[in-house]
Amino acid sequence: MGASQTRTEHKYQDLADKTGFSLEQIENLHKRFQQLSNNEETINREHLDSIPSLANNPIRKQIIEAFFDKRNQHQDEVGSCEEIGFEQFLMVMSHFRPPSLKTTEEEKEAMRKEKLRFLFNMHDTDNDGTITLVEYRKVVEELLSKSGDIGQEAAKAIADAAMLEVASTNVPHMDPDDFYEGITFEHFEQILKGLEMETRMYIRFLDVETPTLRCGKSTS
Known about the structure:
Blueprint: H1 2-19, H2 23-37, E1 42-43, H3 45-49, H4 60-67, E2 84-85, H5 86-93, H6 105-123, E3 130-131, H7 133-145, H8 152-170, E4 183-184, H9 185-191, H10 210-213
Antiparallel strand pairs: 1-2, 3-4
Helix pairs in contact: 4-6, 7-8
């Protein structure tokens, strides 16, 4: 029993070093993983699709797919998995970890870039390093169609106009006949330059109590 607990703590410490989560946070996330997987060693898309708080999220599919995207699991690979284990799950969850009181400015900037990369990957569905008009249009259409007040053609027109605006901003000297290949990660960073990302991406959609996962000292 003692040896087993020691091995578990050692494993958790290794995961803590990789992700920045505390041992307590990892333990709580492991409990949530077991709930989602019905105590199995892996989870699949159906497990995440059953989460009630994700049901009405307009980008539910993109969020779920992000968990199975190898790029988000700190792997030097591309492609997707059919199932993921707890360590892969935790690696993806680390993108949602907020900064602590001890986080340095350099670390905050690294976390921001990691979060932006995660969001970029959600849109770059074919892993080619560029968000194309087709990919961007699909996301915008899904977001707008959920309102019920905008038809598909109107959503398509809005997406096209938005992409044209992005093109004119990032490549201001384009000729009328030039083709804009799409948004690179560098363009994506510029678009969201003024948006505070460090605490905006959180994990409430997994029904995990946010206070339990907060990094740093409690202010209460």
